[in-house]
Amino acid sequence: MEVSLFEPRIPQNTGNIARSCAAFNTPLNLIEPLGFKLEDKYLKRAGLDYWPLVTINKFKNFDAFLESKLKKRIISFSKKNGMYLKDFKFKEDDVLLFGREDSGLPDCIIDKSDFLISIFMPNLQTVNNNQKGVRSLNLSVACGIAIYEAHKQINFKNGN
Fold it and tell me: The domain containing residue 83 runs over which residues?
């Protein structure tokens, strides 16, 4: 399994996600352009002293990223009417793809993915095209939920 961030903008989110990747021994792919430099103090602080435990791969754009993952399933995450996370079955080589904090994943990127997943949020309601309640989860929170669910399914089959 791999975690991929499409054009992340907030260094603290990326640092927190890197920390989760370290905890689950999961590579982190960063798809440029980034909204910060990898030397950013907030990025480093959020990742604490776990940076040596994370494999980070940078890609100059989405096409370069996609070309390197031809034999793997790209699983996009968005609030845009995807299959609910609880109903999806992960595989060991899946690549989990998350969008920008400000705009999410563009439709053209979602269209190049193999699956679209949404995380159920009970306090998200749309009435007459107006959203009420929580619009979305923080990127690092959504990523943590997804990493845990995928890891649980892959590594603890049959209660092991």
Answer: 2-159
Joined together, the tokens standing for residue 114 give: 């193999």
Spell out the residues 6+ positions from residue 145 whose beta carbon is closer than 8 angstroms to its own: 85, 119, 137
Amino acid at 83: M
DSSP letter, residue 31: E
Residue type at position 50:
Y
Residue 15 phi, psi (nearest 5): -65, -45
- Domain with 138 in it: what CATH number? 3.40.1280.10
Q: Tens digits of per-residue pLDDT, 122-147?
A: 666 555 566 666 667 789 999 999 99
pLDDT averaged over every residue in the chain: 87
Tell me the C-alpha to C-alpha distance, in Å, between residue 53 and each of 20, 26, 110.
10, 9, 30
Q: Phi and psi of 125, rounded to 5°?
A: -130, 140
* Number of alpha carbons in the 13 Å side-chain half-sphere of residue 42: 9
Q: CA–CA separation, 28 vs 78, rounded Å?
A: 18
